[in-house]
Design goal:
By secondary structure, the protein is an alpha/beta fold. It has one domain: 3-Layer(aba) Sandwich (Rossmann fold). Helices cover 44% and strands 14% of the residues. It is built from six helices and six strands, in the order βαβαβαβαβαβα. The protein starts with a strand and ends in a 6-residue tail after the last helix. The mean pLDDT is 95.
Length: 184
Amino acid sequence: MKVLHVTGYKSLELGIFKENDPKVHIIKTAIEKRIKQFIEEGLEWVIVSGQMGVELWTAEVVLDLKEEYDINLAVFPAFENQDKRWPKGLQEKYQEIIMVADFYKPIYIGDYKGPYQFRAKNQWFVEKSDASLILMDEEFPGSVKYFYDAAKKISEDYPIYLITPLDLDDIVEELRMSDPDYWS
């Protein structure tokens, strides 16, 4: 696999309203762990649409990994100015990420026109990537269900890797056990 698409919940769907929420660190650690495994198997590109939540956190993880690994980040929003209605801090973060990403190009030129842009984006990501990594609970899929269902419908052979609530629980336990105070 050379190109991995990563997506998942928006921050509000996870009840995360501040970037310094401890849950963000756990999620980023889980994403980093999986991406590192894929890098060791030959991954060259991580692609995201840059939506707030899992996709922005993934972009941050990949940018951090660039210091140690030969990995590239591409951001392909469904349309221009997707961050127009976001909170100011997230707009700034998004603008910084698209400035330092290895590649940035909106799928549609211009502002939001309709839901067809999101459907086209989902198909585009399946066609342009070798697999997807999705942070999702299949019992409560939220908005990421649209991509998940589209990917399965577009191609039965398209690999989808999940980060589940159990994976996040494992990360919490790993982080707790790596704390020296845990053992005293």
